[in-house]
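Handout for the seminar on molecular recognition.
Each group receives one record of this type.
Step one: identify the two inputs.
Step two: read the structure output and locate the region that could contact acetyl coenzyme *A.
Step three: write two sentences on what you found, then compare them with the reference statements printed after the record.
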Amino acid sequence: MTSLDARLGDVSAELPVTDGTIRATELKQFATDRGPLMTYDPGFANTAACRSSITFIDGDAGILEYRGYPIEQLAKESTFLETAYLLLGGQVPVGDELTAWVDDVNHHRLIHENVKDIIKSFRYDAHPMSKLMAAVASLMSFYPESRDISNADIRFQNTVRLLAKMPTIAAYAYRHSLGREYVQPVDDLGFVENFLAMMFKQQQRQFAADPRLVKAVEVLFILHADHEQNCSTTAVRTVASAGNDPYTSIGAGIGALFGPAHGGANEAVLKMLREINSVDNVPEFIEGVKNGKGRLMGFGHRVYKNYDPRARVIKAAADDVFEVTGVNPLLRIAVELEKIALEDEYFISRKLYPNVDFYSGLIYEALGLPPEMFTVMFAVPRTAGWLAQWEEQVSDPDQRIIRPQQIYTGARALDYIVG
Ligand code: ACO
């Protein structure tokens, strides 16, 4: 075992280094004028908050693996439900196991009529992420036994429920904004086909999405299913650490995902492309970004200092979608932005590359979805990862309630005088 030789004043200690980390609590051996020595790490950029065996990322090499399987292989060979099973249980489902898993999820797609009422109680123009957050958080009150997180069977049952109901809630949030009747889930349609039918079915007796679009959405769902300790997953784990059920915990995750620096970036990318409006305006826009006028949305990542491997797969999926829907006119602007940014010293020196959100919005728009729905399209598959991380958090004996320290900078011991 290696160790870090540390000395502060008169005190010296050997801090054991395990898996490339030292335990922050070891630093308590050193006293400072403000109490025991702590770490200050805004954004937790260099802090491991848990041990996890779900998702591996090598940000410098641009590698992403779920349970050891490269994302490129999963996108090519797997379905979203197989990938969800893999994330949750650690194994690729086969034979009867797969059939039972798919049946189980399929049979939990319906939502209580009162959950529909919660969605209906919003104004028609409310952001669908608000509806999603409220409806998901409300599910705890429909399944109060989910509060018993010490019981593995109960945990699994509510995991299946939430994974299954998420597309139904998302589709209803969308249809509510259009003033359209809700479409019931259909048993014999696959996870993605059924989701597309619940979103887009109109007067047809049966809605059948183009198989190329089904495959593209399946790929997008796999790519978005998990991404280790990102902002929303950290929100899920934090809420879970206080002893919360999956609905309450994932309700918080949805809130975190909504932010434009996180999942909301796909919506922001489309807005940005519209504002740029023409390929001719791209150089001026890039100059503006370099001079501090906003960020190039869909670029940069806390972990990837190389091309986001998901962005590469999405680019290929976009071509398949455009074959069916026709090319999104904003694509030319996106391609030009990427080309110029990848050659520009500002972006090169900061290792800023396209992330997963740079092209996903273009696909969602080609499917006919408004930008407000893009982050919802992210939340549906990310539920698989949130649930896997929630399970890992609540069953890890090493974990405690998440409660960071602070460095207090305010006033002290003032006398409160009235009048
Ligand atoms: N455009 C222009 N400059 C950028 C961008 C960008 N998109 N991202 C980072 N930078 C610059 C910063 O201004 C900073 O420059 P400086 O050193 O001269 O001050 C440097 O790069 C480092 O940036 P940080 O903000 O410290 O990087 P951080 O790791 O904290 O942020 C983040 C990562 C939030 C993703 C950031 O790159 C960003 O805001 N990107 C745009 C939003 C986006 O696409 N988010 C989606 C991320 S993927 C996801 O969540 C699913």
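Reference statements: The pocket of acetyl coenzyme *A is lined by residues 43, 261-263, 265, 289, 295-302, 350, 352, 355-357 (CB under 6 Å). The longest strand covers residues 2-8.
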